[in-house]
Amino acid sequence: MADIWRSNQREVIAVIVLLILLTLYFSTHPAGPTTYVMTIWANQCLILGLAAVAQFFAVIVRGIDLSVGAVMALTNCIASYLVIGSGLDMAGGIFVVLAVGVGCGLVNGMLVVFGRIAPIVVTLATGSLFLGLALLLRPTPGGQIDYDLADAMTLDVFGIPTALIVAVAVIVLFWLPLRRTGLGMGLYAVGSSEQAAFQSGISVATIRLAAFALGGFFAALAGLFFSFVTTTGDAGIGPNFTLNSIAAVVLGGVLLRGGVGTLTGALAGAFILKTIGALMFFSGLPPLSQPLIEGLILAAAIAIGGADVLRVKNRLEVFGR
Amino acid sequence: MVISSTPVVSLVGVSKFYGATKALTDVDFACFGGEIHAILGENGAGKSTLIKLIAGVIQPSEGKIEVDGQACKLASPAMAVSRGLVCMFQELSLVADLSVRENIMLGAPGTGLGWLNSAVIPRAKAILEQIDGGAIRMNRRVADLSLAERQQVEIAKALTRKPRLLILDESTSALNASVVEKVFALIRKERAQGVGVLFISHRFHEIEALADRVSIFRNGQHVETFDNGAYDYGAIISKMVGQRIDDIFPDKPPMNLQAEEILKLESYGWSNGFNNVSMVLRKGQITGLGGLDGQGQGDVLLGLFGLLKNTSGKVSIAGHSAHIKHPKRAKSPALSIALVPQDRKTEGLVLEQSIARNLELAALGVPGIDAADPSIYQPFLDALELKCDSLEQPISQLSGGNQQKVALTKWLALGPRCLLLADPTRGIDVKTKTQIYALLRRLADSGVAVLLLSTDFEELIHLCDETHIFYNAQVVSHLTGSEVTAENIIAASLNIKAAGEAHG
Fold first, then answer.
1. Widest CA span of chain A, in angstroms?
2. pLDDT tens digits for A91-113?
3. How far apart are CA A11 and CA B113, in angstroms?
4. Between the N and C ends of chain A, which has fewer C-beta atoms within 10 Å?
5. For range B324-349, the mean pLDDT
6. Could you give the CA distance from residue A130 to residue A119 in angstroms, rounded to a whole number?
């Protein structure tokens, strides 16, 4: 039991913080925890949540993805052309959107793996590239998403926000099974020690490529969900999401050095960040102080996560953290 | 013993070049199923290269590798494992952030990227039970395990992969004698089932106890293969180094109990590691610390070098009470303590940096020493015969033995009055060991007090003037003079009373 706590404490702390913030939010919200309030909250959280998941896959293999926002913008713009019309048209459109995301991720992955270039450099460059493509597609915001589909994805099912159902589905139907496969384990192995992974008979190149492809897929999902919420295409949405996705994974207990953290943690981190924003909206604090407060909370979260260093009695152990 | 008719693996005319450096030259070598085949050689003789070739980590520059008599390209470790060639590397292949269970499943046969195979876990547990590792919980993170526990997990991981050829590269180096004996029993069982074993160790008595055949490598060439027992130690060593080394250990001068006290511990303790440790280190003496792994002896060294918080008891240096709160304080001229740590790759050296930069690290910030002056290092580098192209070469390009020479020199240049050594000859070839032993004795003769933690009891017997054996966080035995025998050390390590043992 102690071992399980030790290996999951970061996620558990993140989820507890989220629950506290959430209680605070719904109790201070003038309208209370109505379905409508919950739905708006969950939609905002899920967009950043999916972006954070995309970031998680890059970070877990000791990388970082500065193109998350750009892929979101690109897929958002593509969706604003294709996700409309008959059911078949929309299905095809969604497929194209997700395929473009995976393609973007693979481009990143191939440059990192075969070009042997640092992920931060690769994704800085490709991020610009993807953003350029998005601007070519939509120089000014516009286009449209099918309203019925957008409603179905952003409202609620029997009072439960669809966005929450999607988040739970990602964890239960995707993440937990992935954790029990060679691929899921390989992600951690490569991020923790590339040499140990290689010598254990793991194809490091395949794992890296898969990680970036998964990252691209989730960035596209984030872009798609953003489209459902706004129902238009806008190439300018990227920059905020890139930086916030990094803040979210850190808040969720994912270590930027790779190998430590979970997708659940990344999602929780994103939900925390967005809930703080929502809380501030009703708190009466000036809106412009939001970055300051968010920064303080991020700093506090990192400090709490590292607080057990103070209890270490062997100074050498401090360096392993 | 059933020996296979065709070799499991054979190398035919294999060479491996790194640029202009020849790591292996035209090597013919074969290992059969059902035999334990020891490989001996100095550092840089080509043992590691040989193993990496067989394990698929690197590919030969010339020549071919045959598996079961068929030419075979081993392009990756995964491919080698699929042919039954399983290696336990000296640099452990465990992933620190994953649990023991996950590490054992990682890359297990038939997994790939798909579902993990948890069927290997009960078998791994059974293996761990047999080698005193039953207490290692499957959910523990590998990062939280001791070096010895990691080696036990490595052994279990390798054996669950159904090897046909098991390669052990110094894989018992951190294990104590009783566990090593159990590992050997396990290896013999594998041999009886027709598994071939390639075994690399620098501990002669291990090779003598275990091997059926011995191959000697020197300067990248295969010198000779012979049946175990065909030659005595002296003859084997002379084949390894090309010249005869008469004695591994230097002569011991008579012990002087009246010598000046350099460092004195009284009821020294630390809540997480050891308690009530009392001992005296005298000028000119080599004092040994022995015992099973993790009995607290390693932590004593860390404490004396200011790496532990909240130690209790009294430490006096040259008669003055001292509070060692930080390594910077420990190395200051007032205390003048040096620690050569156990893990040279992570704690002792900065691998990517040059030899010259590494040498300077310890001397930086010590008043009265010019760290940039190469002449303060040269006498020790000469005494240890460091082999390198130039001092600008990165440490990572040196062999393990040469790396250890740099790690030692960087501290010796400070002229410490008390030298703490944590298993300085772990995984190091005989020639380098001999050089280190001779240097330690010379340092002691020049007035340094040496505290040597060792997992090799031959060092405690032949090199140390007196020895403290740890068991369960305490010193259980203090052996001096003729009491220092293999029987007494092993008995004390296991906390069993033996004839002639004296408690101290």
1. 65
2. 999 999 999 999 999 999 999 99
3. 25
4. N
5. 89
6. 15
Q: Which of B93, B100, B117 to mutate to test the interface with A (most CBs of A within 10 A)?
A: B93
- Are A162 and A155 in contact by the 8 Å Cβ rule? The answer is yes
Q: Do B141 and A210 touch (CB under 8 A)?
A: no
Please list every residue in chain B whose beta carbon sits closer than 8 Å to the beta carbon of residue A202: 78, 106-107
B112 CB near a chain A CB, below 8 Å? yes
| Chain A contact probe: residue of B83, B88, B113 with most A CBs at under 10 A | B113
User: Is the distance from CB of B423 to CB of B433 less than 8 angstroms?
Assistant: no
Query: Residue B114: which of A181, A199, A202 has the nearest Cβ?
Result: A181
Q: Is the pLDDT of residue B240 over 80?
A: no
DSSP 8-state class, residue B370: -
Tokens of B253: 């001068």
**Following DSSP, what letter does each residue of B430-499 receive, concatenated?**
HHHHHHHHHHHHHHHHTT-EEEEE-S-HHHHHHT-SEEEEEETTEEEEEEEGGG--HHHHHHHHTT---T
**What pLDDT is attached to residue B504?**
37
Say yes or no: ipTM exceeds 0.95: no
B96 contact residues in A (CB cutoff 8 A): 192-193, 196, 259
Q: Name the average pLDDT for chain A.
A: 88
Q: What is the pLDDT of residues B105-137, one digit of tens each?
A: 887 766 777 777 778 888 888 988 888 888 888
pTM over 0.80: no
Interstrand relation of B36-40 and B213-218 (parallel, antiparallel or unpaired): parallel
**CA closest to B112 among chain A residues:** A182
DSSP secondary structure letter of residue A99: H
In degrees rounded to 5, what are phi and psi of residue A100? -60, -40
Structure tokens given for A59: 């970070």
